[in-house]
């Protein structure tokens, strides 16, 4: 999760988020190079007084400074498209989780396990335990097996919500009447926090998401207890 003064991306917990971070760094590097070059040129132009009285046109330089930026943009567009299709790829998921956005809480369904379902509300600040995270912890966490492909289906019951978990590189809109799909692979155990990221009404800030990533045998125990209760 994000902690104090963490202004960058969170540590990745999935291969897709790792790729997203690589792409972010790549794009940022190009951005820095362009900023430095343009900054240098601007400073040099401001602080000299040379005038070329005979300069009316320059076909060659115009060609160069039109085509060069286009090529630089290709270097961003190609990896960007690769990532876009990579994020959309479904790779034989082991289980499916359905999350439904409501005003203002999430509900979840494990369709593979006897349609087990539950609601997940934020824990209000006055009911929070000492080790809880304010505005981020929920009463019923999603438990998922690590090292497994997981498909998630996202929809909403009232207005548009967005199921967003930064550490996993997942951000899918839940839209009434539509069923959106994505998948991810959690490569370590732990708690992963997320929040709704579509402005969905008064309590938009108070419908967080918590994933508890556990080894597969722990998950099987949890799900069988849950289904049998
Ligand atoms: Cu749900 Cu914002």
TrEMBL record:
Cytochrome oxidase subunit II transmembrane region profile domain residues: 1-91
Reaction(s) catalysed by this chain's protein: 4 Fe(II)-[cytochrome c] + O2 + 8 H(+)(in) = 4 Fe(III)-[cytochrome c] + 2 H2O + 4 H(+)(out)
Subcellular location: Mitochondrion inner membrane
Ranges where the Cytochrome oxidase subunit II copper A binding domain occurs: 92-225
GO molecular function terms listed in the Swiss-Prot or TrEMBL record: copper ion binding; cytochrome-c oxidase activity; oxidoreductase activity
Subunit structure comment from the entry: Component of the cytochrome c oxidase (complex IV, CIV), a multisubunit enzyme composed of a catalytic core of 3 subunits and several supernumerary subunits. The complex exists as a monomer or a dimer and forms supercomplexes (SCs) in the inner mitochondrial membrane with ubiquinol-cytochrome c oxidoreductase (cytochrome b-c1 complex, complex III, CIII).
Biological source species: Drosophila subobscura (Fruit fly)
Function as written in the Swiss-Prot or TrEMBL entry: Component of the cytochrome c oxidase, the last enzyme in the mitochondrial electron transport chain which drives oxidative phosphorylation. The respiratory chain contains 3 multisubunit complexes succinate dehydrogenase (complex II, CII), ubiquinol-cytochrome c oxidoreductase (cytochrome b-c1 complex, complex III, CIII) and cytochrome c oxidase (complex IV, CIV), that cooperate to transfer electrons derived from NADH and succinate to molecular oxygen, creating an electrochemical gradient over the inner membrane that drives transmembrane transport and the ATP synthase.
Protein known as: Cytochrome c oxidase subunit 2
Transmembrane domains' residue ranges: 20-51, 63-87
GO biological process: one example: ATP synthesis coupled electron transport
Cofactor note as given: Binds a copper A center.
Pfam families in alphabetical order: COX2, COX2_TM
Membrane topology note: Multi-pass membrane protein
Taxonomic superkingdom: Eukaryota
Family: Belongs to the cytochrome c oxidase subunit 2 family.
InterPro entries reported for this sequence: CcO_II, CcO_II-like_C, CcO_II_C, Copper_CuA, Cupredoxin, Cyt_c_oxidase_su2, Cyt_c_oxidase_su2_TM_dom, Cyt_c_oxidase_su2_TM_sf
Cofactor dependency: Cu cation
Protein keywords: Copper, Electron transport, Magnesium, Membrane, Metal-binding, Mitochondrion, Mitochondrion inner membrane, Respiratory chain, Translocase, Transmembrane, Transmembrane helix, Transport
GO CC, alphabetical: mitochondrial inner membrane
């Amino acid at each position: 999760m994000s902690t104090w003064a963490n202004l960058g991306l969170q540590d990745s917990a999935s291969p897709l988020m790792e790729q997203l971070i690589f792409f972010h760094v790549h794009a940022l590097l190009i951005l820095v190079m362009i900023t430095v070059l343009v900054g240098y040129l601007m400073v040099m132009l401001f602080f000299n007084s040379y005038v070329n009285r005979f300069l009316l046109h320059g076909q060659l330089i115009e060609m160069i400074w039109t085509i060069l930026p286009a090529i630089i943009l290709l270097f961003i567009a190609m990896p960007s498209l690769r990532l876009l299709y990579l994020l959309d790829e479904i790779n034989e998921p082991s289980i499916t989780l359905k999350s439904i956005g409501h005003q203002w809480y999430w509900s979840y369904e494990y369709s593979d396990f006897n349609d087990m379902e539950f609601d997940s509300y934020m824990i209000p600040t006055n009911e929070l335990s000492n080790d809880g995270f304010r505005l981020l912890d929920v009463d019923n966490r999603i438990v998922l097996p690590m090292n497994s492909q997981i498909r998630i289906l996202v929809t909403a019951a009232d207005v548009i919500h967005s199921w967003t978990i930064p550490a996993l590189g997942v951000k899918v809109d839940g839209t009434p009447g539509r069923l959106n799909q994505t998948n991810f692979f959690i490569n370590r155990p732990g708690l992963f926090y997320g929040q709704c990221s579509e402005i969905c009404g008064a309590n938009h800030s108070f419908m967080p998401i918590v994933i508890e990533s556990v080894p597969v045998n722990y998950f099987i125990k949890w799900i069988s207890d849950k289904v049998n209760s």
